[in-house]
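User: Sequence recovery, please. Input:
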């Protein structure tokens, strides 16, 4: 392979959300559902939940819409506070309509942008002791509180959305709101929900898994802390991809250089990625990046070199006792999935008193070394790092 070819191949494995539909592997039913949603629903909010790197942004990118629907994707970059997030959203929305063919919308979008810029300027001088705030309609006013900004931002958002909804059928995709905190996420959703209550606007919001689980709980118990089931029409959970799907993603990127990834190396990457396309893509990228263009073939040991620091870091952080270590080595003999009974029986046969066997097992579950496989507590498996460590390194 010459250097140019090598660079091109490496570049294919850059971690970047998918932009074109033909490069997005499967998930057809999710795409289909969201496309229907954008046409037939009125004023609904749908969520896309899933772990980091599972494909939420990519999915938002590839949803296509009928001509009459305008799709806008807004990626929230400010995460400091609720007000910063809302301002970020408002500003980006206004930017989208600043060149609108409709005069009134264009005017409101300009007004919104002016308002935000002025308020940001006042914010800076407030830090220097002056206390002016900016009213969305009246301009600079004296001595108001932070709460006043929030109300104004909400009002600005509402004005803009009201006008937009009179002329456009909108599919508003909001990405990257908050990756960790359920509380922050909910505060924002609440504000958005109240400001964007118009027939012609549907919203899709990407979210961390924790929101989804809370949503399910709400449906089951009718009594969740955040009442998500009343806000979201539906939340689509993006499951990890199958090994075949991840393999298809990698094989497509490899183009005519399929030999670069031999089957046994691929198996290791699939084990390690466990259905997460980002981890697969990144692992190839990082491994390939260490190779020479004249000898790009990825051997197992090359991949292990890249992932070993992660595995070792994981092992060290586990802080296992001798007993736990000993037990793990025994349980590893049971294969990839096992029941609690089979594991504790095995420990007992190896001189562990029954109560110790149970205790050690529970401790390993608590430390997330052993993980419930189906949520029904019957089958357990090793944490993926441990599994890879035992299978390839250990
Ligand atoms: N269905 C798919 N087909 C092909 N590639 C995919 C697919 N899903 C995800 N990817 C790839 O996986 C990586 C992660 O995808 P993406 O950035 O969309 O995930 P995300 O869920 O938005 O992540 P984050 O939580 O960090 O925002 C990207 O490199 C993307 O190209
Ligand atoms: Mg994303």
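Assistant: Recovered sequence (394 residues):
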């Amino acid at each position: 392979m010459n250097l140019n070819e090598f660079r091109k191949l490496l570049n294919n494995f850059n971690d970047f959300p998918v932009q074109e539909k033909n490069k997005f592997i499967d998930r057809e039913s999710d795409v289909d559902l969201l496309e229907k949603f954008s046409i037939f629903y009125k004023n609904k909010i749908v969520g896309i939940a899933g772990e980091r790197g599972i494909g939420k942004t990519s999915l938002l990118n590839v949803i296509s819409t009928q001509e009459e629907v305008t799709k806008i994707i807004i990626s929230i970059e400010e995460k400091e506070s609720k007000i910063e997030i809302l301002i970020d959203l408002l500003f980006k929305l206004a930017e989208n309509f600043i060149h609108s063919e409709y005069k009134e919308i264009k005017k409101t979008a300009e007004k919104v942008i002016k308002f935000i810029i002025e308020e940001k300027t006042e914010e800076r001088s407030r830090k220097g002791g002056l206390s002016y705030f900016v009213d969305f309609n009246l301009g600079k006013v004296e001595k108001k509180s932070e709460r006043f900004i929030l109300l104004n931002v909400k009002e600005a958002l509402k004005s803009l959305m009201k006008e937009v909804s009179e002329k456009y059928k909108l599919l508003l995709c909001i990405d990257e709101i908050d990756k960790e905190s359920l509380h922050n996420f909910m505060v924002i959703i609440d504000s958005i929900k109240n400001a964007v209550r118009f027939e012609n606007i549907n919203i899709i919001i990407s979210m961390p898994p924790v929101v989804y689980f809370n949503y399910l709980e709400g449906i089951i118990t009718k009594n969740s802390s955040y009442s998500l089931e009343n806000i979201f029409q539906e939340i689509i959970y993006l499951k990890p991809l199958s090994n075949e799907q991840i393999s298809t993603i990698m094989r497509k990127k490899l183009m005519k250089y399929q030999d670069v990834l031999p089957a046994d190396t691929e198996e290791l990457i699939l084990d390690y990625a466990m259905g997460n396309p980002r981890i697969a893509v990144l692992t190839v990228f990082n491994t390939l990046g260490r190779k020479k263009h004249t000898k790009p073939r990825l051997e197992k040991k090359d991949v292990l070199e890249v992932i070993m620091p992660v595995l070792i870091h994981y092992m060290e952080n586990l802080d296992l006792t001798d007993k736990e270590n000993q037990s793990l080595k025994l349980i590893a003999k049971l294969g990839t999935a096992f029941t609690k009974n089979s594991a504790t029986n095995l420990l007992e046969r190896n001189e562990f008193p029954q109560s110790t066997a149970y205790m050690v097992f529970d401790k390993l579950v608590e430390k997330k070394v052993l993980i419930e496989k189906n949520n029904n507590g019957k089958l357990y498996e090793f944490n993926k790092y441990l599994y890879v460590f035992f299978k390839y390194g250990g």
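DSSP finds 17 helices and ten strands in the chain.
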